[in-house]
Design a protein that fits this description.
Blueprint: H1 14-25, E1 29-31, H2 73-77, H3 80-88, H4 94-117, H5 120-146, H6 162-167, H7 171-196, E2 200-205, H8 214-218, E3 223-224, E4 227-231, E5 241-242, E6 247-248, H9 250-255, H10 259-268, E7 274-277, E8 286-290, E9 300-302, E10 307-308, H11 309-314, H12 322-325, E11 329-330, H13 331-338, H14 342-349, E12 350-354, E13 357-360, H15 367-377, H16 384-394, E14 399-401, E15 408-411, H17 419-422, H18 426-441, H19 445-460, E16 466-469, H20 479-486, E17 490-493, E18 514-517, H21 526-532, H22 535-545, H23 560-571, E19 577-578, H24 582-586, H25 620-624, H26 627-639
Parallel strand pairs: 1-2, 2-7, 7-16, 17-18, 18-19
Antiparallel strand pairs: 3-6, 4-5, 4-8, 8-9, 10-15, 11-13, 12-13, 14-15
Helix pairs in contact: 1-7, 4-7, 5-7, 15-16
Length: 642
């Protein structure tokens, strides 16, 4: 968000201005990305909102400073020049914005703390939130003291109830109580204001937590820290995604009655009326990646019923099984990849196992070792192509051994596209393809359904919020049935049809318990999608999805009238909610098109170092004054029965 009074980034007070605008045009819901504190590294990488250091604490960057400067306006005035400069930027300067806000907080805290801590409102807040607030403030104190969130490097490597008692007189500890109280008050106030203007707020529950977070520090037994959560390869991320979060120890969570999840949703319901459950598929099964790997492609679904050695023997595997689970590196493969650099690369990274067959040297035997080596040794001559080529060779496997189980395996995703697979005989190839199909599309169905039906009812029943599941990606067959049974809304993104082989989702056929959207924060906008469609794809969409006759418009741009047609198609859907990116709404007006369409996209999920910097191109006050634009949007919503 961007308003005249923002401080380089939208804050909770801006939600009121957004609610005014939404109400004026007939919009009923505002959906936010996660707003929890992500301050782990102190760098722009913390702008990624899905890696919270606490699932309860709100992010200090969204604090509206004038509300805590009452009686000390002159103090805030010192920051006006910097505030105005940050606010004028096209993109968020995350580090400077957060640093300046904290500078002001530390100045105002000694002046304002006594009045806040003695107030009845603060006492009520503390009484309700003490259980998470105390360890969070300790965590932030030690993070700043030791200059790292890696609590294994702290003297206080485990949380105890004695720690907040030891720190209770220190301002560097108490300031986090102060900030969280004001954030809570501001977001609560904004939610009440939105309700008064007939607008509800929808939040976002991230599937994971940061590896070095308060939650893991306080209760390590709830997490599998030897694994990483992510997603298998798809058209947008061919090597898969590695989010870096530890996976959940669900059996331990079950023993505790899923209290961590129940408390999380109960806490969130203070602010939101509906919630997006990020990657709801993770409650059926999660894509688990060993810490020795960096790419998602070397992960597997957990839980999953593995392949055993006898199944492999029955399809004609009469050779050592390590041929299938160790990287297959043949002389011809190396020669094809490295050509003139063959001798240099082989001598540096490989050793010959037998004639024509190579192994990685032990120092480079995992992706993590390889990446660490390049980061450490190759900084001045960092060869990304070489690193990527070596990483792909490490992933040139067909099977992945099951940890602590002898001769049991998971299939590597898309194993049929590896050169390891191509070097096998046809009998084994066909047998592996049949096993692969059974492994991913049949044998896990009952297991995954039972996993979801164990967890989701307990979690959903902890809240009265409307729960919407983000069920995109590699979707188990049981997902629609479970979602419908539990009354969870599914997500339909038109360009990502749930029926394999379809060019796009037919929005007229989606069920009522659904959210439809043309774009998400992880995709390009409508404009970006249209501009990158093939000519045949654009023509098919124009005629068959939008039901327009004739030749589709040229793809030099996506004109506002075409953008509007796509929005109308969503508004006409029977889905309970049609939800749009602000960018897609603004692009009804050609004047708001970004010169570089890529800048309209919030996140590129294939890039683990994406800087989340998007800002609206105009201020909310300016948006409210666009009479023709707003009247047109209001009429479109009303005419389509929304």
């Amino acid at each position: 968000m961007r308003s005249e009074t923002s401080f380089g980034i939208g804050d909770f007070n801006d939600l009121k201005k957004a609610a005014n605008w939404a109400h004026s045009v007939g919009l009923k819901l505002m959906q936010l990305l996660p707003v929890n504190d992500t301050t782990a590294t102190g760098t722009w990488k913390d702008a990624y909102p899905y890696a919270a250091i606490s699932v309860f604490a709100l992010h200090p960057i969204y604090l509206h400073l004038p509300d805590i400067a009452v009686g000390a306006e002159a103090l805030l005035e010192k920051y006006e020049t910097q505030r105005a400069a940050l606010n004028a930027l096209e993109k968020v300067d995350y580090e400077t914005t957060l640093d300046l806000k904290w500078q002001f907080i530390r100045e105002i805290f000694p002046i304002a703390k006594e009045a806040v801590f003695s107030s009845e409102e603060y006492q009520k807040f503390y009484a309700v939130n003490e259980n998470w607030l105390r360890p969070y403030a300790c965590f932030c104190y030690f993070r700043d003291k030791y200059k790292t969130v890696d609590f294994s490097q702290w003297t206080e490597a485990a949380y105890s109830d004695e720690l907040p008692e030891e720190l209770k007189e220190k301002d560097a500890f108490l300031v986090h109580y102060f900030v969280q109280y004001h954030l809570h008050a501001q977001l609560t106030d904004a939610a009440a204001y939105a309700h008064a203007h007939q607008v509800v707020l929808k939040g976002d529950i991230a599937i994971g937590v940061y590896r070095n977070s308060v939650d893991v520090w306080v209760n390590k037994s709830l997490y599998n820290t030897n694994s990483q959560a992510g997603a298998p390869p798809d058209d947008f991320a061919v090597s898969g995604q590695n989010w870096g979060f530890p996976t959940y120890n669900w059996p331990e969570m079950k023993v505790e009655g899923y209290d961590w999840w129940r408390n999380r949703l109960g806490h969130t319901s203070q602010y939101f009326d509906a919630i997006r459950l990020d990657h709801v598929l993770g409650f059926f099964r999660i894509w688990s990646i060993p810490v020795s790997a960096t790419q998602g492609i070397l992960g597997h679904f957990e839980p999953a019923i593995p392949i055993d050695k006898n199944e492999l023997y029955r399809i004609g595997v009469h050779f050592p099984l390590e041929r299938l689970w160790k990287p297959f590196i043949h002389f011809e493969i190396l020669k094809e990849i490295f050509v003139d650099s063959f001798d240099k690369v082989v001598s540096a990274y490989f050793e010959e196992k037998e004639e024509g067959i190579y192994l990685f040297k032990e120092a480079f035997s995992t992706q993590r070792k390889l990446v660490d080596y390049f980061d450490r040794q190759e900084k001045n001559t960092y060869n990304r192509w070489l690193l990527q080529s070596l990483m792909e060779l490490l992933a040139n496997v067909i099977l992945l051994p099951v940890e602590n189980e002898e001769e049991a395996f998971h299939f590597r995703f898309n194993m049929q596209h590896t050169s390891s697979f191509q070097y096998l005989n046809n009998e084994v190839k066909n047998g592996l393809l049949n096993l692969y199909d059974d492994y991913f599309f049949h044998r896990q169905n009952d297991l995954w359904k039972s996993e979801a039906m164990e967890k989701l009812p307990a979690i959903k029943n902890a809240t009265n919020m409307l729960v919407c599941g983000e069920d995109l990606g590699f979707v188990p067959n049981s997902v629609p049935e479970v979602m419908q049974h539990l009354g969870l809304l599914g997500l339909y993104v038109q360009r990502m049809p749930k029926q394999l082989g379809s060019g796009f989702e037919n929005l007229k056929n989606v069920p009522y318990l659904s959210v439809v959207s043309p774009s998400t924060h992880d995709t390009s906008t409508i404009r970006g999608w249209w501009l990158h469609l093939s000519r045949a794809g654009a023509q098919s969409f124009y005629n068959n999805a939008l039901l327009q006759e004739g030749i589709a418009p040229a793809q030099a741009d996506c004109p506002g009238w075409l953008n509007r047609l796509i929005l109308q198609d969503h508004l006409q859907s029977p889905a309970m909610w049609s939800i749009f990116l602000m960018q897609d709404l603004l692009n009804n007006n050609d004047a708001f098109h970004f010169a570089n369409v890529e800048d309209e996209q919030i996140n590129h999920p294939e890039n683990p170092n994406q800087y989340w910097q998007y800002r609206m191109p105009i201020e909310l006050e300016q948006l409210a004054d666009l009479k023709d634009f707003n009247q047109s949007l209001k009429e479109m919503i009303a005419q389509n029965g929304r």
